Amino acid sequence: MFLTWFHYDNKGLLRTHAIIGAAQINSMWPSFLSLVSLYGGYLRRCFTAAGLTQQAIDIDAETTLSFWGPKPSKSNAKPSLLLLHGFGPMAIWQWRPQVQFLADDFDVYVPDLVFFGDSTTKSAERTEVFQAISIGKLLEKIGVKKYSVMGTSYGGFVAYHMARIWPERIEKVVIASSGVNMRRKDNDAMLKRANVENIDEFLLPMTAEQLRTLMKLAVFKGVGRRMPDFFLNDFIHKLYMEKRKEKIELLKSLTFGREDTIDLSPLFQEVLIIWGDHDQLFPLEMAKELKEILGEKTRLEVMKETSHVPQIEAPAEFNRVVKSFLCGL
């Protein structure tokens, strides 16, 4: 729901790690220098170079949302596309390859969901439906009347609700690696694969070993075993500890996966489902079932040799499929 920071075309952090080696890095890298902070700065420069600026808006008296989007004076020049991140680091860590590829053809909006990044609320609401309503208010506030939406994992939950609530606003829907049709047994099976009792132990890791488990299940060709503890602990400290209590409340308030039955309606819009053939969080069988549930306007694309984050593991193919769908090709 979640990780997108460890595999970028064998460049940057992972390439340095592979060349030097974990033990050597541990012995030579200054403890005060954060690789996570350095790479976060690189991601912000990538978003800025794509023509996006970071902004924050009070959508009502209780909730403030932070987002990346075109400068207000330059928005609405192209079709609008909303990207909704999964449960994990803030949005810039999850959509970099897509922003760089799609910004030439779309006005791309990339919000941090409530309690991620600088987005926050005083409301007691915690469900993904509340997230959907909040993002809808944001786009209405900045004057985006029509748009397509793409959500990965937890962001796919939010995207589904937005499409259901506002069929007149949302033109097309992309759901990536998102078990919207999750039953209680699917949730239990995921916990068993992760060898944990509570979902927050898995999705909000507090130790290097817990993060390695998440990476092993989320990425087909996992890299966690090769990463030194100091790097993983830095990542946990910088990107997982903030607003941890509130994020646990978000997980406990999920409406999907509570029951033994599925309560979903087909969507009015054209829908593209993208799934990794080795997804260990939401197995491929769920994608096939979801396609049947969402109706005849839905198509499924299965990406080979990827797991839960195909948008990062195979960005070129993922981007090509998404753009073809959104442009009607």
TrEMBL record:
Gene name as annotated: LOC111462697
Domain of life: Eukaryota
Full protein name: Epoxide hydrolase 4-like
Domain AB hydrolase-1: 79-315
Pfam families assigned: Abhydrolase_1 (PF00561)
Record-linked InterPro entries: AB_hydrolase_1, AB_hydrolase_fold, Meta-cleavage_hydrolase
Organism of this sequence: Cucurbita moschata
